Amino acid sequence: MSVQNVEGKVSDASHQIGGHLLVECLIAQGVSHAFGVPGESYLAVLDGFHKYQDQIQFVTCRQEGGAAFMADAQGRLTGRPGICFVTRGPGATNASIGVHTAFQDSTPMVLFVGDVASDTRDREAFQEVDFCAFFGPSTKGMAKRVERIDDANRIPEYVARAFATAMNGRPGPVVLVLPEDMLTQTVSAKPLSKLEPVAAWSDPGSLRQLRDMLLSAKKPFVIAGGGGWTPKAAQALQRFAENWQLPVGNAFRFQDTFDNFHPLYAGDVGIGLNPKLSQRIKESDLILAIGPRLGEMTTSAYTLLEVPKPKQKLVHIHASAEELNRVYHADLAICASMNAAARSLEVLTAPPTVPWTDWAHQANADYVDNTRAQVIADVPADNVNGLVNMPEVVAALQRRLPANAVLTNGAGNFASWLHRYFKHHGLSKGFKTQLAPTVGAMGYGVPAGIAAAILTDRVVLTMAGDGDFLMNGQELATAAQHGAKSIVVLLNNGMYGTIRMHQEREYPTHKMGSHLNNPNFANLAKAYGYEGVRISKTQDFEPELIAALQRQQGTLIEIMLDPEVITTRGSLKAITQSALKTKT
Length: 584
What we know:
Elements: E1 2-4, E2 10-12, H1 18-28, E3 33-36, H2 43-51, E4 57-60, H3 64-78, E5 82-86, H4 90-104, E6 109-115, H5 131-134, E7 145-148, H6 155-167, E8 173-179, H7 204-216, E9 220-224, H8 231-244, E10 248-251, E11 265-269, H9 275-283, E12 286-290, E13 313-318, E14 332-335, H10 338-345, H11 357-370, H12 381-387, H13 390-400, E15 406-409, H14 415-421, E16 434-435, H15 445-455, E17 460-465, H16 466-472, H17 476-481, E18 487-492, H18 497-506, H19 521-528, E19 531-535, H20 541-550, E20 555-560, H21 572-583
Parallel strand pairs: 3-4, 3-5, 5-6, 6-8, 7-8, 9-10, 9-12, 10-11, 12-13, 13-14, 15-16, 15-17, 17-18, 18-20, 19-20
Antiparallel strand pairs: 1-2
């Protein structure tokens, strides 16, 4: 007997095995790339990738954490689940950082884990782990669903359910466990058709109530972000804001949700928050949270909005009913996907004038003023202006990168330069342009940038710190192997900057564990197949950036940064002196 596969090609069902069927199911769901580190536990799947290599590409990575970060980036860029394959035990535990990132960042992902054979299970077989317990779904877990496929003929059912779970409601990761003997079973099943996420619409009664709340407000403020946004949704959000003249802030590391160049943009609501924006949110009488789950970073450790009942009236719109009223008791909770919510909001009839026009315009003026380069107190002028002036470095990025460039970063104080000074046109112009972990995972930027370079033909730039880069810098070898080009701007200040900053605040003059002895990163990049350059003066950066944009291969630009220039708002010296003064 023969069966038609998803591309219409005929294969002999008597020789079809589970591993091949699994790859066919991915192709049926529109997957073009899968990221992973090969393992003997899923050799049959690797053979399926070989069989269908003209339809889907397996990207061989160097470490499972990097592979999972690439899958997360894939999910953010495409809006469909990013795909990662790892082997049991050490492979799965390495990949867990990417699963946790996808969970907290609301990114659709499916992690496939090759597992021990069924007849050795529950004996602590080689590298055996109870993955249902390890990834266990819960409000504090790492995955939305964890399942094991024991019958190869049910592979289409499990894959389809994984895709549906990953995309619907609050997007997130799903883990599918693959016993190695199951993958070699002969099957007759065929892939199911491609799934699309289900749209949850706002109910008319809630929309009428929301309009009444707006008409009664004096100082409304919108916080937009979270998962599930598309260009059409972002464009509808912009029209809603324009109709009602609403100031809009983007949630932490979702800075491309609303156009940063728009006259109603008020800035990002995250780490290093503009003090004027913080005060504005606290003074608001109506907060419209559209999409974000209002986590610790977006709420400044739950101080911008008090828990459980904010002083401001709160309208919370989210795709997951389970998320609504879980932390904050909202005055109005609306369960709707972002596409549906934004399209519903844009047709709300606005009055001819609103009383908060000046409020909105001043919010934008505060944002613009905050993005102007300012000399950091207590840092010698020649250090900031003569050697490496980070605001000017970011200004060069703004001048030279195309509007649709993808910018990625991991976690560390270095990221604050991008967050404060770089402006995203973002989704309203048709492109996802920021890939950054709201979970604060170090090592995300480099693999995310490489994934973006593999998946798109756009310019990709990663900003990394020295500690951050060494978490996953080995993935430059992946980029070189697969012909991907990214530009890495690496800030080398010889420390774990965020930890050092907190040490100076909490234990001034006591430095422990935050100092780094680093390699020559420019030379290291060359060993991986990238071009590598090192600079120590501002004026040297833009020419090197231009050269990197023109170069066919990837480039790492190492910037030697004075440790005193620790944040966008203060020096180490100032932080230490303030802490000492407080303690005495």
